[in-house]
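User: I'm writing a short methods note and want a consistent example. For Cytochrome P450, I'll paste the sequence; you return only the structure tokens, no commentary, since I'll be parsing the reply automatically.
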Amino acid sequence: MENTFSFSGYELPVGMSKLIWNFVPVSIESLSSSHELQSIMHISLPLQLYGAAVLGLLSHLCVFIRGEWHMQAPTILILYSILSLLIFLAEIRYGASDVVSSLSKTLLLASSYSTALFTSMVIYRKYFHRLRHFPGPWLAGATKFWHVYQCRDGRNHLLLERLRQQYGPIIRTGPEELTIIDPEMPGAVDGPGNNCSKAIWYDFLLPEIALNTTRSKRDHDTRRRIWDRGFSAKALAYYEERVVEYAETLEARIAELSRRGEPVDVSQWFYWFTFDVMGEFAFAKSFGMLRDEKWHIAVVMLRKAMRLLGPLSPVPWLAQIGFYIAPWMWVVRDWLAMLVWCRERMGERIQMTAAKPDVSHWLIEASRKRNSLEKDREWLNGDAVTIIIAGSPAAGLTLTDGRYIPGGTTIVAPRYSLARLESCYEMPTCFVPERWYSRPEMVRDRRGFAPFALGRYSCVGKALAMSELRFVTALLVSRYDIGFAKGEDGTSVLRELRDQFTAAPGALNLSFQRRGLDGQTG
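Assistant:
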């Protein structure tokens, strides 16, 4: 084991694992040799409970109130568990108590410590924190578990929209988090010249690391230059031929369903199309879902795994505990299985010589040229996940209307709500595509429209995504009259939408009627 805790590829930091392994035998040895411990065990219970409470208070005010602790959460939990066990054993040996009494006393001490720790956290967050003056639900300012419970069904986008209508454009949705629904936020947070850094949520993928998850601006910029080669004009010319092939396969499947008079769930078929394309560009191997007309097992694992990102996004430290300590738990198991699958496919891709360059080709070749292929495996594995799945200001932020956002605050700017601002769009909740071409007056403020993000963190695959959209749209619109299928009213695509890091829309059943050469339906 080499002094390292490892679960499904996740390892505790080496220093922490050594501390745990060295701490246990030393502490147990101390139980049998320390005379001071015996005298401590005979201190009155009220004094011991008082001492535990003081220790809990100091743990918050002197330790946990400073810095980031989400990645150390598994280690902290293990250390606390070991400490509780040692107290229990010491009580049995020196406290002259039976097992039940020793267990009860250990639980009382742990409860006293925990109560003081969490009470101190709540009081500080509600009455002394720099965000205490911002409006929002009372519990949201005290703990992120409120947010976890509220978005347990994957409808975080609807929750934030309700909060906007209740509290206004700036809402405190966490102890150190503000959700700001303002058209200038995309530019303020992601635009050129901003001083924002990525929040702790982006450590979700560790120990793998990827272009869109690294929190280091230097590492991001270095990696971005490699990715840019994979999406250059020269590279896109290679890709477009294959995009056309998959678009034509999609059209052929739709044509077959149309001839049989069957409805087409475009949410499903477009999902299959995009994943087949990205499988081709990530691993030089399609998932074959358009061909087989069924879900690939890896994509099924991914869809299950993404359910983890919805409810646990507000508490990344809890996700880390799950990754390291409970890899057998349902959605955690699916997430880890998906990561293992991506690692294996990337390993196969490294050994493969592709006939035509794909995105992974540029990433792998960059590592080979630096003789750092093995060293870069965590980057390559993380990038594989990024391809498939396709901020926090340091010194404060002042909006144009004078509102000041303190430094170190996690900022959330939800696109779903930005797209429904009355100040930005006329009839914002209605589907009126004409606003983007023949009725530009319906767009009052374009600053909030940033589907591919802005600045250094803008989507590196934007050109490829637009290419896919153009090919598929042109192909289908030029050949078919498209309408709702029988019994479909178009509401389920949004009604069943789930916010799982990427949007998971509901079903949308459409009818495709093939046009003749003269443009008439036939």
